[in-house]
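Deliverable D5.2: sample structural annotation.
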Amino acid sequence: MRQKLVARFGENVPRYTSYPTAPHFHPGIDAAVCRGWLQALNEGDEISLYLHIPYCDKLCWFCACHTKQTRHYEPVTIYLRSLHAEIATVAGLVGGKGRVRAVHFGGGSPTMLKPEDMAALGTALRNSFGFLPGATISVEIEPNDMDDARLDALAEIGMTRASLGVQDFDPKVQKAINREQSFLQTKAVVDGVRSRGVESVNLDLLYGLPHQTRESVSSTVAQALTLEPDRIALFGYAHVPWFKKHQTMIDEAWLPGPAERFAQSQLAARAIVDQGYEAIGLDHFAKPGDALALAARAGTLHRNFQGYTDDCCETLIGLGPSSISQFRQGYAQNMPSTSEYRCTVDDGGLAAVRGIALSNDDRVRGWIIERLMCDFAFSAVDLVERFGEAGQRLLLQSSSMALHDPVRLLELDGDRFVVPAESRPFVRSIAARFDKYFEAGTARHSAAV
């Protein structure tokens, strides 16, 4: 049964970190619209901030992020001046109304910043925005960047969660993706952040990489578990060379096929769960006492551009080129070009150039998709109570899927529509059935499994 599902639903579909998804953003949402959305924040609204650092000192061939390689630090210095300018402009428009609940530094490689530059960013944020007590500060860490001075700088900005990219510890796999990183390097960074008071450590692992086998994946997972991370993210490698040209450096003949990818993912997931971690959504795992696990059990888990999160803020402000902001009114994305971004924000402008305003239908479908991705279920009563007639229309679609689909991707259990256990690895394909833009769109996506 599983192999038939892999064959049928191992299709290319969105990851659903938003709805509607980014390929459907359009230029009608520009800086003027974004300005209005920022100014419309209410007094006391809780907000999250995302800061994008679009540079790496070495380019990993598997990466699909908006980043560029630089061997010199001067472009980073120039970029940071612009990022500070954008922070000042956005903070002025927010006007002190928002209270920061969470900050996430992503990239690229945020940890390639010099310690003094990282500390200056932390200071600028706290001087520009009001922070709530206990606000979380998450940083994506590239272990090859790290030294004691950088670890100290992360402690200085109040980092509460460290997320380390591991991918795979097998040297053959690492060479194929241009990312060489030993287990001992990784352990040293984990030990370093913990010795500085960071209580939450996440490790990112990948399956479906070139030359990966079930044995190499099992070995990597076993080594990662010895570090006792609080969370593990287990992603499938997204091979999208039409989108990221450097992925052409990976010979497609080296990649495992759909059945092998699926076997790798299930083998790794079982090994992690067997060590006492709770499965969170499609591809995350957490210790039972972790905030992510608590949110999953309480039904308050969410999904945004950083993946699964316990962050419940309605507003997420993205800073830096290509960053995406989420407002109650819709989504807005900054221009991807670093040079154009600098010209715009250096003059006090906003960098938003595309996005989408949410319709009532978008809100209903987005809620269903998020609950499916987070809980593998949603309540019919909750759907109608939240969205009224619009919810009722989608309820009919859900009922038809549950009652007439012989594959049983969705089942009716009392008032709840539930994805059965055997279908959960294919939840992205199930979510796509509620995506009105998907069939009509021309965007190309990564494999669902």
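Annotation notes: The longest strand covers residues 130-141. The radius of gyration is 21 Å.
The annotation will be released with the project's public dataset once the embargo ends.
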